[in-house]
Structures are given as structure tokens and as C-alpha cells.
């Protein structure tokens, strides 16, 4: 059964996280001027690699599928307003992204490396080292990503781009980035850290992995 109190706490934490990162989202597309002049060594990427784009406060992740294609999760309010793929496939603007986060609507979509990174530097398989986890075979990683393409609910806590890539790469959906931000947010707003609320029952398949991880940690 759903727990209204835990879902309310989860919603409040998500809003606090959004507010704390609003400056990043609203400051314009990262690397907008640089994007047009950045050259990426696409031939050095292997199918199934995790591509990581560090930002000022957040890091964006995707799975390289080969042929200059990257699968990544992007919040996008336009998905809730139209079925026109010609419109929704265009590069997601910051306004669409912010409203998508608020509306909890996103898709796992495929973009070019250039559109995915938008002028920022790219780290390859950095999560393998930072998480110290054994990765699945690259082909399995890519196939997992391809199976999940399409619309998905979005949550800063339970279903973000990091959950997507860790599920594909390691078989377990986790987001150290979200955990870290939650700890900072709860300490700042509440005076002390509060327990992470249980995941709502309406979670998609990726985020459902977080339940198993949370149980193992407890």
C-alpha cells in the first residue's frame, strides 16, 4: 500500500533539491558557445561505455550505443503535451528540462555525442573507478539501455540519469549523486539528516532496483 506520509516527504525533498540546483538549470545551456567548436574523439568510445559530463553542480550520464549515438535520460515537459516526435526529438531546452523535472516526466532518448555533451568535456567509464564495481559486458550494457528507450517517470531521488546508467552498467540502480545532495539538503533545511523515504510504489523498472539496494543496506 502507498504511504502518503513517505510520498509527501519524498516530494518535499525533490523540490528542495530542485530549488538548490535551479541556478544551474536556469543559467542557460552549459557550454553553449563552446558546443559549436568542440570536437569529440568518437572513435575512442566503445559501445556500452558510460559517458559522463561533469557540470558545475550536477553530472549528466549516458550510455554510448555506437555510431555517434548516446542513450540518456532527459526530463522533458513536452512529452506530456504532444506525441509529435519531430518536436520532442529536438534538443531539450532548459525550460523544457526544468518543467519536466517539476512534472516528473522524462524519456530515455538517443542523441548525438555533440548534443549529449553540449560542449562539455566527457569522461569515459569514470563510474567504474569511483564506485569500484564490476561492470557488465559492454554489449549487455548497451542492450539494457536500448530496451529501456522511451518515456519514463522522472525523479531526482529515485529515477534520474545516474540510476539509468548504473542499472545498465552494473545491474543495480543507484545514484550517489542524489544521495549526497539529499544529505546536504536535509542538513541545511532540517538541521540534521533525515532517513531517505521509501520509494513510491509507482516506480519504473530502473528505480525499482533501488528498493533492493535499500533493503540490503538496512
UniProtKB/TrEMBL annotation:
Chain ranges of the LRAT domain: 50-177
Signal peptide extent: none
A Pfam family per the record: LRAT
Family matches, as InterPro entries: LRAT (IPR042288), LRAT_dom (IPR007053)
Active site, UniProt feature: 161 (acyl-thioester intermediate)
Record bears the keyword Acyltransferase: yes
GO CC aspect terms: endoplasmic reticulum membrane; multivesicular body; perinuclear region of cytoplasm; rough endoplasmic reticulum
PROSITE patterns assigned: LRAT
Coiled coil regions in record: none
Keyword terms: Acyltransferase, Transferase
Matching Gene3D superfamilies: endopeptidase domain like (from Nostoc punctiforme)
GO biological process: retinol metabolic process; visual perception; vitamin A metabolic process
UniProt-recorded Gene Ontology molecular function terms: phosphatidylcholine-retinol O-acyltransferase activity
Lineage: superkingdom: Eukaryota
Entry-linked PANTHER family: LECITHIN RETINOL ACYLTRANSFERASE (PTHR46678:SF1)
Name this polypeptide is given: Lecithin retinol acyltransferase isoform X2
Species of the source: Balaenoptera acutorostrata
Amino acid at each position: 500500500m502507498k504511504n502518503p506520509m513517505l510520498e509527501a516527504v519524498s516530494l518535499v525533498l525533490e523540490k528542495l533539491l530542485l530549488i538548490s540546483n535551479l541556478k544551474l538549470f536556469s543559467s542557460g545551456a552549459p557550454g553553449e558557445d563552446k558546443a559549436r567548436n568542440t570536437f569529440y574523439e568518437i572513435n575512442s568510445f566503445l559501445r556500452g561505455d558510460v559517458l559522463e559530463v561533469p557540470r558545475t553542480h550536477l553530472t549528466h550520464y549516458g550510455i554510448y550505443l555506437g555510431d555517434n549515438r548516446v542513450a540518456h535520460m532527459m526530463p522533458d515537459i513536452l512529452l506530456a503535451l504532444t506525441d509529435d516526435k519531430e518536436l520532442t526529438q529536438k534538443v531539450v531546452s532548459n525550460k523544457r528540462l526544468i518543467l519536466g523535472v517539476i512534472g516528473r516526466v522524462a524519456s530515455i532518448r538517443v542523441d548525438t555525442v555533440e548534443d549529449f555533451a553540449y560542449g562539455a568535456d566527457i569522461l569515459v567509464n569514470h563510474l567504474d573507478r569511483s564506485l569500484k564495481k564490476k561492470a557488465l559486458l559492454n554489449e549487455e550494457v548497451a542492450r539494457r539501455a536500448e530496451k529501456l528507450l522511451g518515456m519514463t517517470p522522472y525523479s531526482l531521488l529515485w529515477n534520474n540519469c545516474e540510476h539509468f546508467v548504473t542499472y545498465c552498467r552494473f545491474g543495480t540502480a543507484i545514484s550517489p549523486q542524489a544521495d549526497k545532495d539529499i544529505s546536504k539538503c536535509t542538513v541545511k533545511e532540517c538541521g540534521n539528516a533525515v532517513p531517505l523515504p521509501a520509494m513510491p510504489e509507482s516506480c519504473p523498472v530502473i528505480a525499482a532496483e533501488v528498493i533492493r539496494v535499500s533493503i540490503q543496506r538496512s
